[in-house]
């Protein structure tokens, strides 16, 4: 662990206190200095100093609140929202999504482009050029200030250094993306694994706001998870945890790209579901589905209207998904297990089966503690980066950066 000098420690404490004051104003929407002092348990003199600093940077402003007795209006503080914006991107397997959000996290605009349009399949220069174009087209520099850029993607990412360690789909290895972005756009950059960041978004603004421990299970091309433990992303020294897709569910099952057999991903991923249905159609089983144009959405719709083949395949998938979820519950005992993926479109069918399977396979004393539900952010990829930026803002590092950048103007 890094050793701080006494001066650095004092600076750090100031940063944490200023962040807690900003956080209170953000939470309360409108608050007086007196209430701030009471809620933060900081001295009124410190509150005066910190709010002056936040105001000088344009992060908060005073508003007059008419007293109900008709006397002198009381002065409240509120966050300045419109002035500060950030860019949140998802570098996906096939698409790049770029969105503009205000400092409070509200989405202002979004843009999506296919990655196969990247020249020479070289996604990093393409990403930087797309972000530059997006900023040029969407930020009004007279009124708005860019404060950060966040990029989330699948693969192995070192959040601390902002490095894409390994992203095989785009042939990326050890790319210091955070540094590249900061160099190009002169703002702090936040880079992290997409599913992990999205689990943080569920905690901050989504379906897991009311709990400290939750797991987001993402069922798409693969099956992945983001684990929140004690209000923080659960991770380790090399950021590789939660590979739930490779829990072996069927020892005699199909080969998996990891080298094993019968991994959850060979049964419950979108690709696996499409493969199972295609195989059964080819064998002549009766169904309203056709191989041409087969999608997970179409399979869910067919199941919802009673197509026996679609129902049976999704029932099996749900049962085995439940077995894997039981393992997660036994290991982490979360308060909530959230599922994100196209299969949620058949929720009336799949959730009762998943729950039944969990009841059969998870520890009896843990099962009553956990709520299994759909995730809030099913199709809002930029929310993952929003969680990273809001975390840096409310914990102080990004707030401190803004104070130093704009405080003296
Ligand atoms: Zn595997």
Describe the fold and architecture:
This protein has 409 residues and is α/β, with parallel strands linked by helices. It has three domains: 6-79, Winged helix-like DNA-binding domain superfamily/Winged helix DNA-binding domain (Arc Repressor Mutant, subunit A, Orthogonal Bundle), CATH 1.10.10; 84-199 and 382-406, 2-Layer Sandwich (Nucleotidyltransferase, domain 5), CATH 3.30.420; 209-374, ATPase, nucleotide binding domain (Nucleotidyltransferase, domain 5, 2-Layer Sandwich), CATH 3.30.420.40. It has helices spanning 6-28, 33-40, 44-56, 123-138, 177-185, 194-205, 265-268, 270-282, 296-304, 308-332, 347-361, 383-395, 397-406; strands spanning 60-65, 74-79, 84-91, 95-102, 107-114, 145-153, 156-158, 163-167, 172-175, 189-193, 214-219, 223-229, 232-233, 336-341, 371-374. Strands 5-4-3-6-10 form a five-stranded mixed beta sheet, with helices on both faces. Strands 13-12-11-14-15 form a five-stranded mixed beta sheet, sandwiched between helices. A three-stranded antiparallel beta sheet has the order 7-8-9. Helix 1 crosses helix 3, helix 10 packs across helix 11 (347-361) and helix 12 (383-395) packs across helix 13 (397-406). The protein starts with 5 loop residues before the first helix and ends with a helix. 38% of the residues are buried. The mean pLDDT is 93. The site of zinc ion has 6 residues, from loops.
């Amino acid at each position: 662990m890094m050793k701080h000098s006494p001066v650095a420690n004092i600076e750090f404490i100031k940063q944490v206190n200023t962040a807690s004051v900003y956080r209170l104003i953000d939470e309360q929407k409108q608050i007086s200095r007196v209430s701030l002092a009471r809620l933060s348990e900081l001295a009124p003199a410190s509150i005066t100093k910190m709010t002056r600093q936040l105001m000088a940077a344009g992060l908060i402003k005073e508003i007059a609140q008419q007293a109900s007795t008709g006397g002198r209006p009381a002065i409240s503080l509120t966050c300045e929202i419109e002035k500060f914006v950030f860019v949140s991107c998802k570098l996906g397997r096939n698409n790049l999504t770029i969105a503009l959000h205000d400092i409070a996290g509200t989405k202002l605009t979004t843009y999506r482009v296919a990655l196969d349009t990247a020249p020479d399949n070289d996604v990093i220069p393409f990403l930087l050029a797309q972000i530059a174009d997006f900023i040029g087209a969407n930020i009004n520099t007279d009124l708005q200030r860019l404060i950060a850029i966040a990029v989330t993607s699948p693969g192995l990412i070192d959040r601390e250094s902002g490095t894409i360690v390994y992203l095989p789909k785009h042939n990326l290895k050890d790319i210091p993306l955070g540094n590249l972005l900061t160099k190009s756009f002169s703002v702090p950059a936040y880079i992290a694994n997409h599913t992990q960041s999205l689990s943080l978004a569920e905690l901050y603004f989504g379906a897991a706001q009311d709990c400290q421990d939750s797991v987001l299970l993402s069922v798409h091309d693969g099956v992945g998870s983001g684990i929140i433990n004690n209000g923080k992303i659960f991770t380790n020294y090399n950021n590789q945890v939660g590979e739930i897709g490779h829990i072996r569910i069927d020892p005699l099952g199909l080969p998996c790209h990891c080298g094993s057999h019968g991994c959850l991903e060979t049964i419950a991923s979108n690709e696996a579901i499409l493969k199972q249905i295609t195989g059964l159609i080819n064998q002549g089983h009766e169904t309203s589905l056709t191989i041409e144009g087969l999608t997970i959405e179409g399979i869910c719709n067919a199941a919802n209207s009673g197509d026996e083949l679609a129902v049976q395949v999704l029932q099996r998938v749900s049962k085995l998904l439940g077995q894997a979820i039981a393992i997660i519950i036994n290991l982490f005992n979360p308060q909530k297990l959230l599922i994100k993926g196209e299969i949620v479109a058949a929720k009336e069918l799949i959730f009762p089966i998943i729950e039944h399977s969990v009841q059969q396979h998870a520890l009896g004393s843990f099962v009553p503690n956990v709520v299994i539900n759909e995730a809030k952010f099913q199709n809002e990829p930029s929310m993952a980066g929003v969680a990273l930026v809001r975390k840096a803002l409310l914990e102080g590092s990004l707030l401190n950066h803004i104070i130093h950048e704009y405080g003296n103007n």
